[in-house]
Design brief:
Number of helices: 17
């Protein structure tokens, strides 16, 4: 897919008709769009997503999502048109919205031949056709918001990371097949139970009820995870806004530092709790058996026992001499003779070597147990002391952080107190979401254990039933197919994770200043280690860089899979890479790196940047790669007054970023002359 044109008619801040022609030259494949904050970069990207997929950004990224029409529109309607090339054919997609009726039209899609619109036919459904060009689940990884790219990094990003990999693999068909197999498995299970006995049927009904409850819990847990992520997004946003407020900058910086310390200390506390929980396993036995150990040790230490262990003579050798009636020197020894009686008397002090070895081993084992019991309470006291110290550190940090929060909440500056109150509300939502997840996950695990027990009972009953055998075989065959399909999907995901990691490694090795080593575990948690194999905290800029590296890696992976044919997965796709604010939190070195690798990740790249982001190092790196360039200019009906003029010089031409005393208020797209 290659986008050629996009037209906007009264779309949000864009007044009237605005048009964009995108760069399609393979060498100069970058379309650069510059604008100040709040003028329309995010709205422009949203228009593309909305037209093709009827999808808008989250409210955190997109204010007033229900207000799509420009305030100065005469008819209260907006329309977005996108023309794109796919496999040598040109198509036009159009979607419109009526603000007064709050109604969005269905997607209209036609083919363009010789400048004329040609209907695609009754059998072609526009949304499905777009889905075949670029699957809806893959789209967010091609048309995305750069400053949100760090959502793939950290604990909450793991789920998003996993979903991204699965969507790029296009496992929709496989998941539908799994769903059908699970339904068949349930049907065969019920049939098998019904053909076994009334008791078996009751067990199956109970298991079905457990499944329904588990499915409900899964849905609730998923909702709580979403709540957690939204709350975390709000927390990050409010923290960022408060950090940028000059009067409380130091307080906010100190609070963030304290919160990071609390997280680190909580990790230490959890590790110490695990160590403490193992204390009873390691020392409980020796302590409980301490009295017995002492008694046995005393017994082994008694004089008559010590004389026999080890003894002067070997019991087995003496017994053999008496049995053979022949000394080891060859002399015959007859029963009843003095020699026989003397040798027989040696048995009283002789020892069995097996018994000797056992006793020695027992003494060694008892010694170890005694050693453990002696150190047990010292270890326990040390562990308790460590727990207390870590808890004290956490409480001290929490008290100081709460004092800062109270100061900000009671600030005389309303903007600060309101943001602080909103931040505390978001934190409370986060706490509740995590607690709800934990509680419902525990209950789900209990239900699953209960189901496992019932499965065992039901299996025993079915084995005894001849009537159930046919249904049991079908059930077992279905389970086999399910497991094979799941295994295949796991293998595909593992392969994808490895390939994506290799691409991330390549980007990081070349462009990040620190010698990072990235790891992606089976749960898609992305962590970064230094050369000493220590997990390292990352700056905001490094998080964004890692997020962009990940996004670039999955786009590259999707491109590499274009020609792959699979019976269960969608083929890959190549689509434009459209990025809003990719350089937001990056320093000059990282900006150069991103400007270098982004144009290489797709045949067509669209970058929406503020004038500050379009720094000299970025422009130098993009030199020779920019095919078309636009500026979003803000028009105002109001007078300029004392406001400073805003303009930039591009290719020797001065272009206004803001204009005053105009006939309308809104944004216009203006092309930069090459």
């Amino acid at each position: 897919m290659r986008i050629e044109f996009m037209g906007l008619e009264n779309w949000r801040s864009f007044y009237g008709v605005n048009e964009l022609w995108f760069a399609t030259d393979p060498e100069k494949n970058v379309t650069l769009i510059r604008a100040e904050n709040g003028v329309g970069k995010t709205s422009l990207l949203a228009a593309l997503n909305w037209c093709l997929f009827d999808k808008l950004p989250s409210q955190n990224e997109f204010e007033n999502p229900k207000k799509l029409v420009n305030d100065q529109s005469n008819d209260g309607q907006t329309k977005v048109t996108v023309e794109f090339d796919h496999e040598g054919r040109t198509f036009r997609a159009v979607r419109s919205h009526d603000q007064s009726k709050q109604r969005t039209s269905e997607l209209r899609l036609v083919e363009i031949k010789d400048g004329l619109e040609v209907p695609l036919g009754r059998n072609v459904q526009p949304d499905r056709f777009i889905q075949s060009v670029i699957p809806r689940e893959m789209a967010p990884h091609f048309f995305f918001y750069g400053e949100a790219s760090s959502k793939y990094v950290g604990e909450t990003g793991a789920r998003t990371f996993g979903e991204a990999v699965k969507s790029i693999l296009g496992s929709t068909v496989a998941n539908m097949a799994l769903s059908d197999l699970e339904k068949a498995y349930g049907d065969y299970s019920r049939e098998a139970a019904d053909n076994t006995s009334a008791e078996a049927s009751d067990l199956q009904i109970q298991m079905d009820e457990i499944d329904e409850e588990v499915n409900s819990l899964d849905s609730q847990i998923s909702d709580h995870k979403e709540e957690e992520e939204k709350a975390q997004e709000l927390i990050d946003r409010y923290n960022k806004e408060l950090a940028g407020t000059a009067t409380i900058k130091n307080d906010q910086a100190q609070r963030i530092k304290l919160e990071k310390k609390i997280i680190r200390d909580q990790g230490r506390l959890d590790a110490q709790k695990i160590t403490s929980s193992k204390w009873l396993d390691e020392y409980g036995g020796p302590l409980l058996a301490e009295s017995f150990i002492n008694d046995v040790s005393k017994l082994l230490a008694q004089e008559d026992t010590r004389k026999k262990i080890p003894g002067d003579h070997n019991q087995r050798i003496i017994a053999e001499i008496l049995e053979d009636e022949e000394c080891i020197c060859g002399t015959k020894i007859k029963d009843g003779t003095l020699a026989y009686e003397r040798i027989q008397a040696l048995l009283k002090t002789a020892t069995d070597q097996v018994m000797v070895d056992r006793v020695i081993n027992i003494k060694q084992a008892l010694g170890k147990l005694q050693g453990r019991s002696k150190t047990a309470w010292t270890v326990r006291q040390k562990s308790l002391k460590s727990l207390a110290e870590i808890n004290e550190d956490i409480q001290d940090a929490k008290i100081e952080a709460n004092e800062i929060s109270d100061r900000l909440k009671n600030s005389q500056i309303s903007a600060i107190s309101e943001k602080e109150s909103a931040l505390q509300n978001a934190r409370e939502h986060l706490r509740r979401a995590i607690a709800d997840q934990s509680r419902k996950t525990t209950y789900k695990e209990q239900l699953q254990k209960e189901k496992t027990s019932k499965i065992s009972q039901l299996t025993d009953l079915m084995r005894q039933s001849a009537n159930a055998r046919r249904h049991v075989k079908r059930k077992e065959l279905t389970l086999l197919l399910m497991n094979k399909l799941k295994s295949r999907l796991v293998d595909e995901e593992n392969f994808a994770r490895i390939q994506i990691k290799l691409k991330i490694d390549e980007i990081i090795e070349r462009f990040m200043r620190k010698p990072f080593n990235v790891r992606i575990d089976e749960n898609y948690r992305l962590t970064v280690f230094n050369e000493n194999e220590e997990e390292v905290p990352k700056s905001t800029g490094e998080n964004q860089m890692l997020g962009l590296a990940f996004t670039g890696a999955i786009a590259s992976f999707a491109k590499d899979r274009r020609q792959e044919e699979s019976d269960i997965l969608l083929s890959g796709t190549e689509a434009p890479l459209v990025v809003d604010s990719p350089f937001g939190h990056l320093d000059p070195l990282y900006r150069r790196g991103v400007a270098n690798f982004l144009p290489k990740l797709a045949s067509q790249v669209v970058l929406l940047v503020s004038t500050s982001q379009a720094s000299q190092e970025v422009l130098d790196e993009l030199d020779g790669k920019i095919g078309t360039q636009y500026v979003l200019t803000r028009y105002n009906q109001s007078a300029q007054g004392n406001k400073e003029s805003e303009a930039i010089i591009i290719n020797g031409i001065t272009m206004d970023l803001t204009k005053y005393d105009q006939e309308f208020t809104g944004t216009k797209i203006e092309e930069v002359t090459p």
